[in-house]
Amino acid sequence: EVTGKDAAAALNWIAANNLEKPVGRLTYTQILNSRGGIECDLTISRLAEDCFYIVTGTGFRTHDLAWIREHVPAGMDARIEDVTEAFGTLSLMGPHAVGTLRKVTTDSIDFPFGQFRVLHIAGHPVRALRVTYVGEKGWELHMPIAGLADVYDALMSAGGPAGLRPVGYRALESLRLEKGYRAWGSDITPNDTPFEAGLGWAVKLKSGIPFMGRDALIASRDRPLTKTLATFTTDREDIVLLGRETILRDGQFAGYLTSGGYGYTIGKPIGLGYVRAAGGVSDEYLATGRYELVVANETVAATLTLAPLYDPDNAKVKA
């Protein structure tokens, strides 16, 4: 949590997306370094005018906390407290998430994607963040750690008849690949810019608001991208993609996969990876190539796409 009279100003300098939003809004954003590379990938919810709640990946807690602390502008009243140990988190997502949540709370859950509300479940206050990492409507539910078991039991009891069950990380990984959701540390790193990663829509470049990395992005804006993140599939279902497989375009080296897995909804192996070309990677360049992947020394035909493979219009997420 970041609090203080300058919390909004400090975070708006640190974050690439615009945080000047009303209380109750949630913002997906990257945090950039001076080169425009992606140092953090997270969500920031505005709990109050002077209080923000930052959620990042489990493995990035120490890195992201240190980066934010080190880059609060000098003299600003912005206090940072790591509240990780105080909260438990459950992600309730899928076709029956709405019906399940309605059974366990009398509070209204009819608020849009990109917002949050405090709900009461099993006698505990729960911060319900309307986001998803799996391509279906749902919520991240953040509650005091002492109430985690009670909330879990209430959800499992309510959702059991509809088939609610816990899932492992590999299931989540499969679903996020089908949506083309990026993973920090593999698909996006400090060496990749939001423009290269297809995340330029989450950058407040046109606002005129200064932020860390803005100058680097402006300097590169009018130059052709030399790499672009894309999604690859193969028609061969026996291929196992793990990441780091070589990408070939018209038979020539063009990059490598950054992550891989299998999409059980679409029934195909999926990989994300950067297509590279010193002369520039335009949409036309991407569309006109013939692609293959080198998997365990075997060359396999592949199809490139820039749109999500599942629900490309986000109709299910924003329903």
Describe it for me?
β2 (26-32) and β3 form a beta hairpin. The longest helix is centred in the middle third of the chain and has 12 residues, at 148-159. This protein starts with a strand and ends in a 14-residue tail after the last strand. The strands form three sheets. The protein has a six-stranded antiparallel beta barrel with strand order 10-13-12-11-14-15. A five-stranded antiparallel β-sheet has the order 2-3-4-1-5. Strands 6-9-8-7 form a four-stranded antiparallel β-sheet. The chain is α+β, with helices and mostly antiparallel strands. Helices cover 19% and strands 31% of the residues.
Task: Give the SSE map.
Elements (H helix, E strand, L loop, with lengths): L1 E2 L3 H8 L11 E7 L5 E11 L2 E5 L5 H10 L8 E2 L6 E7 L3 H8 L11 E6 L2 E6 L8 E7 L3 H12 L9 H11 L34 H8 L5 E7 L12 E4 L2 E12 L4 E9 L6 H5 L3 E5 L2 E8 L14
Antiparallel strand pairs: 1-4, 1-5, 2-3, 3-4, 6-9, 7-8, 8-9, 10-13, 10-15, 11-12, 11-14, 12-13, 14-15
Summarize, please.
Helices cover 19% and strands 31% of the residues.
Helix and strand pattern:
EHEEEHEEHEEEHHHEEEEHEE
> How many strands?
15
Shape designation? globular
Helix count equals 7
Sheet of most strands = 6 strands, antiparallel, barrel
Radius of gyration: 21 Å
Low-confidence stretches: none
Feature tags:
319 residues; alpha+beta; 6-stranded antiparallel barrel; 5-stranded antiparallel sheet; 7 helices; 19% helix; globular
